Q: What sequence folds into this?
DNA sequence: TGCGTTACGCACCTGTTGGTAAGTATGAAC
DNA sequence: GTTCATACTTACCAACAGGTGCGTAACGCA
């Protein structure tokens, strides 16, 4: 009665088991690199490994591999390897991954819209801290 | 012409300086604890320190303090200390923080709606891996 | 006088994350 | 037969995140 389909869109109290699950999922996808990879794949579908590494600036090969495996096992991206030489592997978002990308789109827009406020706040906070330490 | 106000809602190419800034902001807010704190404060405004620690299950005192400081310096929460005994400190989301909470709401809903698919995908992936290792 | 409460700060230590660098498999080209 | 490219995997190591425990300030109460 409580765990199966209830597709209620309201954000009400849901039972703690599911809540914990959701938290775990959030914790798994909410890291810097994962988000950037999803965004890169959202903009450039069917990207290859080295392309991704170039797009997600600063990521190391190892972390990219790890993140891609994680995303794959979560069902967010699809990995397609072609038995050619040199080998070719293409990654693309699954429909599930696409839907997550769209959900995150709001956050990207938020960041784009509010970065100036954040910068200002950071500066103000640093100034206040300096003042406090002086005294 | 390019960096100031252009409030274009389209998701077009924006100049790399801002893009990097946005990435940095995303990297700063996109971690497990920060998100959970924002959600807790979204649901229970004016929460106190120990209340938050109880709500965000599993967080340590140190990390909660650190995260709150970070959120405060980013201008996402407001800290109000009352000079009483025992001391009382209340935290609430600023309008900026509220807007971020709303932007993230989509992700929460997404997670709530799709956790079953993710679980299924994880299980399938593990099974496939087992199969591979057996051979 | 000593205990309790709240909201921390600080020091220490460990576990995980992440970077670097090297090795591997494949087949085609030279 | 050596080289080259791709897409990894593995080993090693450093850095940092995070947990634990102790200290603190302020006052109220017994």
A:
């Amino acid at each position: 009665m409580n765990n199966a389909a209830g597709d209620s869109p309201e954000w009400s109290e849901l039972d703690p088991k599911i809540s914990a699950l959701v938290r775990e999922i959030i914790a798994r996808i909410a890291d810097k690199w994962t988000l950037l990879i999803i965004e890169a794949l959202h903009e450039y579908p069917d990207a290859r490994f080295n392309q991704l590494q170039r797009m997600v600036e600063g990521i190391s090969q190892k972390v990219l591999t790890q993140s891609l495996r994680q995303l794959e096992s979560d069902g967010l991206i699809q990995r397609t390897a072609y038995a050619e030489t040199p080998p070719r592997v293409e990654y693309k978002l699954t429909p599930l991954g696409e839907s997550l990308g769209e959900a995150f789109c709001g956050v990207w827009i938020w960041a784009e819209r509010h970065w100036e406020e954040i910068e200002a706040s950071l500066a103000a906070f640093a100034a206040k801290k300096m003042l406090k330490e002086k005294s």
Chain A has one domain: 16-134. Residues 60-63, 66, 83-87 of chain A lie near DNA strand C (CB under 10 Å from a C1'). Confidence is low (pLDDT under 50) at residues 1-12 of chain A.
